[in-house]
Structure formats: structure tokens, C-alpha cells
User: Which sequence fits this backbone?
């Protein structure tokens, strides 16, 4: 497909998608409950290394994918640092008031946002949509009508991107002047929406013609099970969490152990 990015598949791709989702949700909740910035920094660094060397994508692609989350890290950390509360003043200029407490809280907030973003990126980059929804139907008993609806929507996204590019080229060839604001949105939204409605109707008719039903027993073309890679995946993230806690508590970078 035109919009696919070349990459190599690592062993992370072989882990069961449902198990992978469950492990990352647990880690997501764990990150929210970590109040030691040393532990959070260690965990963020481990996730960043896995993101760089475990997803199988080229460095330039990883850079552009990571850039928005780095900006979120910088903005969330700096806003808390400059406008937080505290008693030990480090710098004051107008509305900007940086204290020791606000600095460490801002650093902690930034790394928390970065860790959550890296968890989402690792899952999104190493999980294919088709095995994910098949696994949800088989392991979590997700109803097929919901799974196939989401899967069809995912498959339509690249087609919509290609149609958007086609509309842009057509308008440029015809010499249509550029518009801004609502006019630009209307120019692209109406044809994209109409094409999506037609395509969704054809998909619904095809599913009905094949006597697709959302109830009753079903067989699956892909059987998603468990393998040794699932054990490796759980062990890897458990090791990340244990190492982050151990190093953060026994070899702290900063003197603060709790930012609350």
C-alpha cells in the first residue's frame, strides 16, 4: 500500500495482542501511581530504548513519531516549572516563578507524559490491526460486529488519505484558488464524507450478502494463540519496572523521592 512504511518485524510483533494490551494497560496505571521522579526517569529511558531498537522502524521515522511527544514533555514540564507553587524560590521574573518544588514536579510530570506516550507508541508500532481484532474476538470474546466495524474503519483510513491527496492534485491542476478557514474545510470535507458514506454502504451490502451475523458461533481464518514470545514480553516489562524501582531507590539522580 502507498502509505505503508517499510520496517522489519521484531519479536515484539509476535506477542499476543490482547496480552500485550493488558500488560501495557497495567504499566499505564503503574506510571500514574509512581511519585518518585527517579523511578519515572529510569522507566522512561528503558521505554525509549525499546522504542528505538525494538520497534523495527528507521531512525528518521522514529524521530518524527517521537517529536510530538517530546514537545508534550517539554510543554508540560516547563508550564509546571514556571507557574507551579513552592516555598524555595530559584528564579522570579514577572509571572514566572520557579521554585525547587515546582521544578521537580514539572520534571516528574514531563517524564510521566513521556512514558505514557512511549507506551502507546510501542503498542501502536508493534501491533497489526487484523491480529489485534482477531485476538480480541477470541481471547476477550468481543462481538464480531464491533470488531469488524473497527477493522473496516482502520482499513478505510489509508484510502481516505489517498483520496485527500487526489483532491488536492485535482484542484491544483484545475487552477482553483486556495481558500482558508471554513471554505477550505468545506472543499475537502464534502467529497471525502460522500465517498466514505458510499464505501460504508457497499461494505454493509457485501456483509449482508455474505450473510454476516453479529451473533452465533463463528470460525476464524486466523487463530491467535499464545507462544514463548508472550512470556518474553511479560518478563521484559517486569524487568523494566523492577530495574527502574531498584535503581531509582538505591541510586537516585535527584534528592527528591516523592513529589506529592
Assistant:
Amino acid at each position: 500500500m502507498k502509505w505503508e512504511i517499510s520496517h522489519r518485524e521484531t519479536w515484539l510483533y509476535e506477542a499476543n495482542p490482547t496480552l500485550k494490551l493488558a500488560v501495557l494497560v497495567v504499566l499505564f496505571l503503574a506510571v500514574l501511581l509512581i511519585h518518585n521522579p527517579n523511578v519515572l526517569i529510569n522507566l522512561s529511558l528503558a521505554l525509549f530504548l525499546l522504542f528505538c531498537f525494538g520497534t523495527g522502524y528507521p531512525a528518521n521515522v522514529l524521530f518524527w513519531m517521537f517529536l510530538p511527544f517530546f514537545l508534550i514533555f517539554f510543554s508540560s514540564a516547563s508550564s509546571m516549572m514556571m507557574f507551579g507553587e513552592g516555598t524555595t524560590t530559584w528564579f522570579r521574573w514577572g509571572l514566572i516563578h520557579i521554585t525547587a518544588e515546582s521544578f521537580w514536579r514539572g520534571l516528574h510530570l514531563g517524564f510521566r507524559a513521556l512514558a505514557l506516550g512511549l507506551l502507546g507508541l510501542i503498542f501502536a508500532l508493534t501491533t497489526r490491526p487484523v491480529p489485534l481484532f482477531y485476538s480480541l474476538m477470541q481471547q476477550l470474546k468481543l462481538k464480531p460486529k464491533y470488531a469488524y466495524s473497527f477493522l473496516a474503519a482502520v482499513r478505510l483510513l489509508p484510502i481516505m488519505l489517498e483520496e485527500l491527496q487526489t483532491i488536492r492534485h485535482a484542484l491544483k491542476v484545475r487552477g482553483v484558488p486556495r481558500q482558508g478557514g471554513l471554505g477550505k474545510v468545506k472543499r475537502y470535507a464534502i467529497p471525502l464524507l460522500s465517498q466514505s458514506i458510499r464505501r460504508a454502504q457497499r461494505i454493509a451490502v457485501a456483509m449482508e450478502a455474505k450473510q454476516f451475523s453479529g451473533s452465533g458461533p463463528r470460525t476464524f481464518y486466523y487463530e491467535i494463540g499464545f507462544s514463548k514470545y508472550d512470556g518474553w514480553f511479560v518478563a521484559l516489562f517486569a524487568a523494566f519496572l523492577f530495574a527502574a524501582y531498584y535503581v531509582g531507590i538505591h541510586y537516585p539522580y535527584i534528592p527528591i523521592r516523592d513529589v506529592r
